[in-house]
Amino acid sequence: MAVEPRQLSDRLRAVRARIAEACARVRRDPAEVRLMAVIKTQPPEAVALAASLGLTLFGENRVQEAELKRPAVEALLADAPARLASPLEWHLIGPLQSNKAARAAALFQVVQTLDRPELIQRLDRLQQARMRESPGLTPLPVMLEINLAREPQKHGAAPDMAPALADSALACSGLRLCGLMTVPPDLPADQARPYFAQLRELSGKLRETRGLNHQPWDLSMGMSHDFEAAIEEGATLVRLGTALFGPRE
Question: Are 230 and 26 in contact (CB under 8 A)?
Answer without folding.
Answer: no
